[in-house]
Amino acid sequence: MQQLRLIKLRPTDALPFGLLLLADETIAAIEKYIYSSAVYTLMNAQEMIGVAALYPLSADDLEIKNIAVAASHQNRGIGSFLIQKIIEIAGRQQYRTLIVGTSDTGFQQIRFYERNGFRKYALRKNFFTTHYPHPIFENGIQLKDMVLLRQSL
């Protein structure tokens, strides 16, 4: 993984919606947070293989609004590498807590975050039925609630 580089996008850079859409359902949903977020891309040589959008909730709390790894690069430890880089960034910026939310049916995502040091702490009831115009299904189950996980830095 020595050739992986994390690059912070400038406000004038094109957003990698193709990757962002791997972790969020619609461009409209992404646009609700993306312009207020710091966006980082993970590069493997000249190929963009990952993205993370980090949104400041307060002086102490930073939320991962979007994190995605290209399908062809998943299950290789790259997501965990990206999480570790995000933890480093959050620490340098003196945040105390890193927060992420995912669907309560996203069993793989929840396990991924827990393996990377996050712990469940809250549930946003009816988040997906309230914030998205159409029903979303994952693992054959309609998404309703969002599980919030956090990690102290």
UniProtKB/TrEMBL annotation:
Residues 4-153 form the N-acetyltransferase domain. Keywords: Acyltransferase, Transferase. GO terms for molecular function: acyltransferase activity, transferring groups other than amino-acyl groups. The keyword Transferase applies. Coiled coil: none annotated. It holds the Pfam family Acetyltransf_1. PANTHER family: PEPTIDYL-LYSINE N-ACETYLTRANSFERASE YJAB. This is Acetyltransferase (GNAT) family protein.
